[in-house]
Design brief:
This protein has 209 residues and is α+β, with helices and mostly antiparallel strands. It contains three helices and ten strands; from the N terminus they run αααββββββββββ. Helices cover 24% and strands 32% of the residues. Strands 1, 2, 3, 4, 5, 6, 7, 8, 9 and 10 form a ten-stranded mixed β-sheet that branches. About 11% of the residues have low confidence.
Length: 209
């Protein structure tokens, strides 16, 4: 019985491995366009706090792998218009860089002061690796690499509208812009930095968007 079962089991394993290898490699040779929702929900903060380290690591891997394969969400916000003599003032700007080999980013982060005195952060020609629960932050640390360098000294501008395109994010009127040294794309669910742009303060007059 054992001698007959072992070769059969071995054959099943080999066939399964071949099928799995073809399935994993097929996206490299066949282009697929999909638009699916995440097949699972992101737990709320209380549930995340109760999960073990192993459960968190498993969920993070599952979420990031699924989200990275999602189609791009492209936004194209236009700059607020005003008469030529009342152009937005360029306050600070920087270029997005990826956090690591997996989480990549590019494009410009630009802070403008508008003629009415309001401020906004504009993401220009922007692109970042897709992911779950991404938010846009202004952070005091100029080049944060991990949550400990963000925690306690940041301003959350809200959910990222799309992982590509041109986007505007209002900045609260009472915020001290000079205090914040970087714009950060941040995964709230797992406290992972996706991309950072160090902001160089350079206030000038009549800057064109």
């Amino acid at each position: 019985m054992t001698k007959r079962t072992l070769p059969l089991a071995l054959a099943v394993v080999i066939v399964s491995a071949v099928v799995a290898a073809w399935y994993l490699a097929s996206p490299l040779i066949k282009e697929r366009t999909v638009d699916e929702r995440l097949p699972f929900a992101i737990p709320d903060s209380e549930k995340l706090a109760d999960m073990s380290l192993q459960e968190l690591e498993k969920l993070q891997t599952q979420l990031l792998a699924t989200a990275a394969d999602m189609p791009d969400r492209i936004m194209n916000d236009s700059m607020p218009t005003s008469p030529r003599e009342l152009q937005p003032v360029l306050v600070a700007q920087g270029e997005f860089q990826g956090a690591d080999s997996i989480h990549k980013g590019s494009g410009s982060a630009i802070v403008y002061e508008l003629p009415d005195g309001s401020r906004l952060l504009r993401l220009q020609d922007f692109r970042v690796t897709n992911g779950p629960a991404l938010n846009v932050l202004l952070v005091a640390h100029p080049k944060p690499k991990e949550w400990s360098e963000v925690q306690g000294d940041y301003l959350d501008l809200g959910e990222l509208k799309g992982n590509a395109g041109n986007q505007n994010y209002g900045i609260p009127s009472d915020a001290d812009i000079s205090h914040y040294k970087s714009a950060v794309i941040f995964c709230v669910a797992f406290r992972v930095i996706f991309s950072t742009a160090t902001l160089n303060q350079q206030k000038s007059t009549g800057a064109s968007p």
